[in-house]
Amino acid sequence: MDELELIRQVTANLPTNDSVVVGAGDDCAALKGGKAGELLLFKTDAIVEGVHFTNDTPPEKIGRKALARCLSDIAAMAGTPTAAVVTAGLPKDFDPDHAIAISRGMNELAREHNVAIVGGETTTNPDRILVSVSLLGVVPEKQIALRSGARPGDAIFVTGELGGSLEGRHLDFEPRLEQARWLADRFRPNAMIDVSDGLASDLKHILEASGVGAELRSVSIPISRAARQAAAKSGNGNTPLNRALSDGEDFELLFTLPSKDAVPLLDGWKTQFPDLKLTCIGKTLAERGLRIRDDKTVRPIDIDGYIHFKKSE
Amino acid sequence: MDELELIRQVTANLPTNDSVVVGAGDDCAALKGGKAGELLLFKTDAIVEGVHFTNDTPPEKIGRKALARCLSDIAAMAGTPTAAVVTAGLPKDFDPDHAIAISRGMNELAREHNVAIVGGETTTNPDRILVSVSLLGVVPEKQIALRSGARPGDAIFVTGELGGSLEGRHLDFEPRLEQARWLADRFRPNAMIDVSDGLASDLKHILEASGVGAELRSVSIPISRAARQAAAKSGNGNTPLNRALSDGEDFELLFTLPSKDAVPLLDGWKTQFPDLKLTCIGKTLAERGLRIRDDKTVRPIDIDGYIHFKKSE
Fold first, then answer.
1. Residue A274 distance to chain B (closest CA, Å)
2. How far apart are CA A137 and CA A242, in angstroms?
3. Is the model's pLDDT at B116 over the cut of 80?
4. ipTM of the complex
5. CATH of domain B154-300
6. pTM, rounded to two decimals
7. Closest to B143 in 3D by CA, of B193, B181, B194, B195
8. Domain coordinates of chain A in residue numbers?
9. B71 at interface of A, judged by CB pairs closer than 8 A
């Protein structure tokens, strides 16, 4: 049994109740029980040494990243974060000043976004650091952005530039909270997600949840400088484009909206966020599957974000 | 720097905002942002193999305990739990059926209390299992029970029988949610906590938060059979009474209320909960400190729950 099958079995029959509007499977859960007209958002996420950071990552950046990932999930629902609780698993002989620095990095980002940290605990975790954050947020009921709302013919947009995040940006990225709130106020995306697994994987989450397909334009994919550098350095034939499609941890917003809104959106965006790129990378289609078009051909993209070339090519 | 000092430093300057009514330091945080007249409760708690369970604990009981501890914290605020998210840190070659069984044990308890499980994730955690649960709840704003409300002259009550929980009960205990809601509806405790660190330690949390002292009566402390057996078995001079005062993980309710309510409470309780003991174990006093009285003497109880004997005794 692989991890996906395990998750499928564990999430197949979860307990639910009348408060649940969106359960496990979207970026956050959405619950009744908030103020009138609002939904509560609820999310948990953990980062582990050796997987999400290394043993020489500065401790402030560990704390920052643990919270930033959850903030990015609240952004993906077009919500506003409110309060967090934190669990830190620390080795027994862990330097207390290091733990305080982890907390300091998290607190600084929390203050930037007016998030309260209202509880937590440390437990002994031999061998490596684990930081788990659970975050609450709110969203106007009418503005919540799910993965499941894309319709055939939507324009597909992504913020920023993609790929190569593990070269450094994954420790410093800015959760796109302000941009997502602005979008939901003015343009109401049909579907939205944050790019954490990689553009192709996360777009597939939207497509599967919405029951549609999509075609991307290869020349339109915004490739980061880090993706180009990483591709040149590794020399394993993994192109910058493939990196932009498949690398994880970009934490940009990926969303779809009716194609008639595409031009007004791009105009409004340039005025509102002149320093952050927004790119239309393709369109959704009734025909299932994810494909990419260049000058001459249309090719499928596999689950890991790699483009399949025909044997004759 | 010891763990307490680390926690003091980390919690000294946490980010806060207008939503926070009770921050870190009580059984749960309490937040505005719920329905009119209600507060949201928010709690996180983690259990780790080798600390809170062993490598031969049945997996269903691991999942059950991880949630039950959080439910007990919601009970201590007189709240009703609503929704949980879960993080499981699992070794790389972990048996998937074992993970499913952990989930099954948690789900069963969640259903008993109408709690939805709305998200979660598995991460790789070499060496040992870690299960972290974050739980939301609600409480009528006027009925919330904090640690800080005890007044001099309150009667002190505890449910159930104490001590020896690690002999087995810590895997099977029933969170006192129904009892706490009944109490808050009818008698409004001045202060409440769940007994997780041990009676003496947790009572001290109430006393310090409330700025009062207390005197217990040694003959009134409800000592469990497990505490007596553990005391007999260990043969280290640790009496059953000391075990009831100092053993952790009882997860009973400990609360204070005005002494005039003591007799009506005991009468009402017997009718409502005939199978669960409720005992008045002493009273709060204006003079600080925690003491215990037997036939002849009044002696202080130290932070770990041990009674100090004078050298001449």
1. 30
2. 34
3. yes
4. 0.93
5. 3.90.650.10
6. 0.94
7. B181
8. 17-143, 154-300
9. no
